[in-house]
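Hi R.,

Here's the chain you asked about this morning:
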Amino acid sequence: MRFVIVTGMSGGGKRTAMKMLEDIGFYCVDNLPVPLIDKFFELLSTPNGEITKVAIGLDVRADQNFKDAENVLKSLKENGYDYEIIFMDASEQTLIQRYKESRRMHPLAMGGSAVDGIRKEREILNNIKKKSDYVFDTSNLLTRVLKEELNKIFVNNEEYNNLMIRIESFGFKHGILQDADLIFDVRFLPNPYYIEELKPLTGNDKPVQDYVMSFDEAGIFLDKLTDMVNFLIPNYVKEGKLQLVIGIGCTGGQHRSVTLANELYNRLKDKGKYGISVDHRDIR
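And here is the predicted structure, written out as tokens:
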């Protein structure tokens, strides 16, 4: 039997994660009353049962102190029940924006502001977050990427170290990438924009890719960048970083940055125990 506890910040994506787990064969129960959790574990752990994968949604709204839930989980471990914890998180700014868009009140706001509720909830959940096996920061996480990562963990049984890497191309003339941790400027390379047959294409098209990568400087830059990122990743993981955003910029965000973002993605994907995606902010 594989038990998974899905918890996290309200608005962090818990329900989305539960739906995805259901799609891959988990029997999902959301907001099970805390006093029934141990009974539920005991019932489903009987030999030769039809259900082999269970996900339980644990919401702070079920018990605002959250102490009873933590005590039950501790007791289950002591009694030999094994389970994994998924924690769905997002930045304060992202959570505030989501509540504004949904026009819903935060469950712990108690008539106050969403900010107060979010901060109170984060304090309540701090302990269980530290004990979680998988932490997903959904602030900039695409739904398809979350699905891919859950499949890796619970279908392919791959290891996961909680770091999500997003490589994103952009154009400086449209504004710098605001949420990037690392930004690299590739405007030192010749611009395909000034070649008539390449101008209407993008870095997703082979003629542009071939042109950009035909310059020795592009390959040298990519080698050095890959080497640096490979050095940084395990150190970020060691420090508990959950998300790494690498921005690669050129003038318009159409040709050079797109090509090199794709090339870096291809070099890093399937090379480590982390999630990775590539996106192009300013591509037409």
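One quick note: The chain has a mean pLDDT of 89.

Cheers,
M.
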